[in-house]
Amino acid sequence: MGCESCSGGSCDRDKTGLPPGMLSEYNLNQSPAEGSLVWIEVINDGNTIMMNDSSKEILGKLQEISDGRIFGVIFGDTELKVLYGEIFSYGVDTLYHIKDKKMIQFQPEVYCEMLVDLCNRVMPAVVLMGATPRGRELAPRLAASLGTGLTADCTELKMDGRFLQMTRPAFGGNIIATISCDHFPQMATVRPGTFPMPEPMIGREGTVIYRQYYGSNYKNIISSERIISVDYDITRAKILISLGNGIKEKESVAVAESIAKKLGGMVSCSRALVERGWFPQSRQVGQSGNNVFPDIYMAFGISGSIQHKAGIGPAKRVIAVNIDPEAPIHEIADISVIGNADSILKEMNKLL
Amino acid sequence: MKYVILVKQVPDTTRIKVDENGNLIRQGVPSILDPYCEYALDMVCRIRKPEDSVIVVSMGPPQAKESIFRCLELGANEAYLLSDKAFAGADVFATSRTLTAFIRKFAADYDLIFCGKQAADGDTAEVPAETAAMLNVQQFCYSENIIISDTIKVTQNYNDEIRVCTVPKGSVLSVSIGDINRRVPSISDHIKALNIEIKTLDRIALGLGMYSVGIKGSKTKIESSYSPRYEHSGKIIDGTDPSEAAKLLIKEVL
Amino acid sequence: MIHSRKLESDSPYLTDESKLSGAADMLFIPDDEEDVVKIVVSHNSSKTPLTISAMRTGVCGGCVPKEGDIVSMEKFNKIIGIGKDDKGYFIRTQAAVTVKDLNEIIRKKLYSELQNITDDAIECILSERTDYFYPVDPTELNGSIGGNISTNASGPRTYKYGPTRDWVRRIRIILSDGNVLDILRGEIKAKNRVFSIPVDGKNITVHIPSYEFNRDVKNTTGLMTGPDMDLIDLFIGSEGMFGIITEADIYITEWHPLMSNIIFFPSDDNAYNFVKEFVNSHIDPEFIEFFDTGSLNLIRKSKKNDPKFTKMPDIPDYAGSAIFFDISNDENIVSKYNELSQIAKIYGGSLDHSWCGHELKDRERFFAFRHSVPQTIFEYVASLKGSMPGMHKMGTDMSVPLDHLDEMIDSYSEVLTSKKLEYVIFGHIGNGHLHVEIILKSMDDLSKAKKAYRTLALRSIELGGSPSAEHGIGKIKSEYIELLYGKQGVEDIKKTKRELDPNWIFCPGNVVE
Ligand SMILES: Cc1cc2nc3c(=O)[nH]c(=O)nc-3n(C[C@H](O)[C@H](O)[C@H](O)COP(=O)(O)OP(=O)(O)OC[C@H]3O[C@@H](n4cnc5c(N)ncnc54)[C@H](O)[C@@H]3O)c2cc1C
Ligand SMILES: Cc1cc2nc3c(=O)[nH]c(=O)nc-3n(C[C@H](O)[C@H](O)[C@H](O)COP(=O)(O)OP(=O)(O)OC[C@H]3O[C@@H](n4cnc5c(N)ncnc54)[C@H](O)[C@@H]3O)c2cc1C
Question: A109 with B138: CB under 8 angstroms?
Fold first, then answer.
């Protein structure tokens, strides 16, 4: 794509003859004052490079609520080029690619400096990113640097012209607050899995602009290890069999794995079982674990503490198996089975 | 070494109930030291040497002294409460600004700042990074382990990645994990804490203007809020017979 | 409306926490007092036994029927109102309100929907700056007030506040002929061991048993007696023999901030000896509880399998026994701790080797920790039931004066060790009331334990104590009445029973056969 001699990036001069940095179809009705800037988080485990789902959901939502221009930002080296097409297909008009090998790893201080610079340049009305662990670390640094407010972990966004209304849970989900910000840009992180995954507009095009970082604010990362392989990532599971303290027999872990395999799902757990040493923390669902967004969440012997429920907010269907009919998990369950978790697991495995 | 720990008192959110009109019933809900702040304190207590100083600071109403007191019981040896009517209604920006002012004026020679990952009421998890940005220092969120030798090394857990970084002096760390069973002080610890004064500082003492703090210094505004009420609308199945229950469940998921 | 149904043989109404199982034909569930009277009158005229049941948390089979029918008071679960007299505030409740519900209402001050029993009592209590609480704290908080009154229940705090008896202002009770007796403490007293009770325009004469009721130790063995005792005290602790309690007034008292403490000692006897001095100090604890080495090891073991088991940190390795107590968290706390430190030092303890907590959340953890010993044993016994269906828990409930505690503990170890039984000791040491739980491994152990139990009960009586300090007699311990009061005592109780319940309809089998 594009001509390699052009420092401005993939300008597609061959096709359109437009100068670098210029969109192929510039929408003159778009007000730049209503523009939004989105940090597009990239998953890169050395083999696979992909846009994370949360960024796609945000881009989908933005198109629904705003007519403004959408600026995307990615950090990393040339390996990210393969993503351009996909990023445009989800609605980005202008993509800033901050290009540096050192940017492959998450560098909040440096990312932030670059984002401050971009915000001063494009003056977006809104800056959004996914409320993923990295998004929730980067966004506040940026907000403070820009001197603006930030609403965390939003579950709803509404836009009126350039004004954004952000809705978020607080007090462990006991309260839902709608928040506005009287400064620009208005910033929010968006809870993954809340907004529907949009359909990509295959073939949609946009402009890529490269930028470079000349500072030295890198932190010294000694080592880094991916602990979730892309193929066993509970945050991407469609069906989750989740085990808690009500599981008494160790055998049930293997039984659950077997059921999950047969159903095409994965096995997760509450913190209680991480404490017991039965699962690594990467399998834990909840506030100090992972947020998950399955179609079906089956909680076996999990009481449903607010820290646990915080992680299963957007699950489409919750099935609870618990011996105690009063357990709080039933409040959010579509189906509650009052019974013994270990033996029901065993029976399910037999039947499947 | 001089450690500063930012701590917050929060209502025990596990005990909050919602009334019929969707309002939080706060009456009778006890306040606690936020568990993540406690994890931060525990981490510092594990690495500190006897001669190190451990300063806790909290912005909050006078009752927050109870939580600060708990920090003293658990090993802190100096404590400040930033309290002023004007601080009320602060959002993260105003909170971080107030905490930053404290650090600059009263603890500028600190070595490391520790925070909890996220406080149980605001739930934003933003104060650590905003404070780091305002102090213009590096930030290390989701810290799980710290080793201090010639250099300081921290292990961060991003759920999909665990990484180890070198921590420059002056950095802000947020701590995401700790012992599920809160520590219990000894009676000797309690007596020691009774002998430490908790110093209260107000807006003037911190040298902050009216429009830098509290609701006036905030960038975000809560327009409205409500408490969602979960009512059990789901089906209830008797699972006394495991094989019957298993059959029904399989029908539901297939 | 009276709800009634036939009882299936596996109905939960036929058992309680003692796991004794009984038999009955019909279950009656009255909605109000009128219903109760109807049920009683019809049973009295047909002389059908009627066993009174509420939350079924008893451990002596008191609510387990032998025959006849059951009346369950479960619908009497409303808290009625608040009043105030010269002794303070009291709460008027129906009989099946649980201690937990009562505590909840008081703690959250949910008074607005209650009635004023005396003028402006609600406004008055809401304007008070202090909080209030009901100080009797039976371990089982799901027990009903009616049940607690019938068994004169007590708990750790009985050390400072006495048993249920001391907090009952008034009761309403339905007698066997259907008459309602409304007894206010102080209104009817005995003369020379005889009551003359005005009922329905007549006077019923009731004789008080001739034995002396031991009030020096915690004691729920048999009816209370006394030459000029209050009528209300005859009913408190009578285990349903005389009638059905429908309503009661319960005093509450001012709450003060508390500090929970656990102090560890190297060995068991360090802890007993510490307690002997502790009770005579100025420290004034709310209660004193003890854990022996065996109990601590039991917790350690359970915690290894499940780190969340007690929500407490690990028990330090140096701990061989522990004393748990609450003290008032006031301005004198440091001087109290200084005194404590002096005493503890003599017995190998130190304030460094302790735990303390003042926040509600922490104090609750301390109580859960205390609870974890019986809970572990309960679960252990339940796990044996599969292979040994007749298995049940064997715990003692004996109290002795503190001066003789050493001797009692020596007897425990002598008797149980000679029978090769494993046991743990924990409980209300401040009241000389320790629970000895025998860790049974086989049915053979169970029969050995039963024999040992009798020997130990005799020993407790010898030392001036009571073989049933807090759980009552019910149906499983009625032999102790004779052990303690002789044949005459049993006859006396029967006489009192006949005077109040001539057709012997209420709870036959409780206390006396
Ligand atoms: C700061 C902080 C962060 C936290 N973060 C998280 C987090 O990210 N994720 C998380 O999960 N927790 C988290 N927790 C812990 C949380 O508060 C709970 O302690 C935890 O979720 C409890 O796990 P559980 O539901 O498995 O266990 P429990 O609460 O012990 O519940 C066990 C359930 O199993 C049922 N049960 C028992 N026996 C059986 C049986 N035989 N069959 C069926 N059911 C049975 C019981 O009725 C009960 O409901 C956090 C706590 C704190 C303080
Ligand atoms: C319903 C609701 C929604 C809200 N939403 C937002 C929002 O979206 N954006 C926003 O800017 N504000 C919001 N606020 C305000 C926010 O709760 C307060 O600004 C609060 O001071 C920020 O802290 P937090 O509880 O989120 O702390 P977090 O950032 O989650 O706390 C992390 C750590 O920071 C430190 N810390 C936090 N507060 C203090 C303190 N007072 N003193 C000392 N150390 C501290 C502690 O180490 C703590 O463990 C909201 C408040 C409510 C009630």
Answer: yes
